[in-house]
TrEMBL record:
Gene3D superfamilies per UniProt: 3.30.230.10, GHMP kinase, C-terminal domain
Organism of derivation: Intrasporangium calvum
PROSITE patterns registered for this protein in UniProt: GALACTOKINASE (PS00106), GHMP_KINASES_ATP (PS00627)
Pfam families the UniProt entry points to: GalKase_gal_bdg, GHMP_kinases_C, GHMP_kinases_N
Family as reported in the entry's similarity comment: Belongs to the GHMP kinase family. GalK subfamily.
Domain GHMP kinase C-terminal: 293-372
InterPro entries per the UniProt record, alphabetical: Galactokinase, Galactokinase_CS, GalKase_N, GHMP_kinase_C_dom, GHMP_kinase_C_sf, GHMP_kinase_N_dom, GHMP_knse_ATP-bd_CS, Mevalonate/galactokinase
NCBIfam families: gal_kin (TIGR00131)
E.C. number(s) listed in UniProt: 2.7.1.6
Keyword Cell membrane: no
Protein name: Galactokinase
Amino acid sequence: MSGAEPQHIPSELTAVFRDAFGREPSGVWSAPGRVNLIGEHTDYNRGLCLPMAIPRRTWVAVAPRRDRRMRILSRQVPGERTIELDGLLEGNRGGWAAYAVGVLWALEQAGREVRGLDVVVDGRVPLGSGLSSSAALECAVAVAAVDVLGLPGYEGDEGRRDLAAVCVRAENEVAGAPTGGMDQSASLLARADEALLLDFDGDHPPVHVPFDLASHGLALLVMNTRAEHSLDDGQYGNRREECVAAVAELGVGSLRDLRPRDLDEVVPRLSSDVLRRRVRHVVTETERVTQAVAALEADDFDALTALFDASHASMRDDFEISCVELDTAVETARAAGALAARMTGGGFGGSAIAIVRDELVGEVSRAVTAAFSRQGFRSPELFPVTADGPARRELQAP
Ligand code: GAF
């Protein structure tokens, strides 16, 4: 299955909007999901990560309202939701729609004058797949809201960084998922054929790193295990709390203050083996991001292999966020000839990625599917991706 988006989504979405709301939308916008090449659970530890946008996008048709209400429906979920912006934190946040209405709330908290919106969503980022369907929804609504409400200050890369912060606030405070900022930054700032080097230690602009595997006869294969993952079920938040506890015990500003060479001296000071392993993952993972960027710049795929292997092992053994489905996907892909493979995203289910020679994509995919079937897992969804562009307007009002 290809990651390409059908061209007919904007006109279909416009027709659904017209049926639902009896008027034309102001336009159609879309925002991409992402994979992270390397650097997991580093963003909220002021570390580095290297995501890229994928050509699986969430699309929204939107028109402004005169009141302070969001009416929203999705082509993937039955039923329309109506959510009032006033008293949002005390009242009905709309379930999945909290990711959308939360953006309006966070824009208002950032000092912008907002009104309600009518919204129809077509989410083509697989839900619960660890490919950032939530951030794609937030970012699609955010760019649409900025356009239809005429909100100032969100132009250019700098404006988009501020908009990413708005979306993170929506996710943390309205949807209740304690995530870092990687996914929203990827969705709003990514560029086609490039990965995005993000540094969360202070206010650094992103660095765009050329990422064109095709010119090397290679493909990036996404392996969605369909083992469902959720960022608001407590496990992700638990890892974040453990990192906060480790920072407090060590008396450092953040785990970014530590380098791998410090670990032998610092790690024994921690009160538990669990915290020692969490710290070792975060500190070595940020170092691997720097090394992966150097490897990509030098077209050194052997180095990338070693870094992906080490990253996956660190997430499996030290940070303990992998699962049997992710391990099976990674190990089977590697055994079937993938140059490199690792789980991607928050973990506890979701997706893994593999760098595979073009001629082996079919073989690796078949091997992973067969391994899942042998083990009685749900059938995985496998598709190659290229680095896609950021959230954007797709269709002007007719
Ligand atoms: C999820 C979160 F949303 C990100 O902020 C990041 O922490 C990631 O998990 C792990 O790297 O996608």
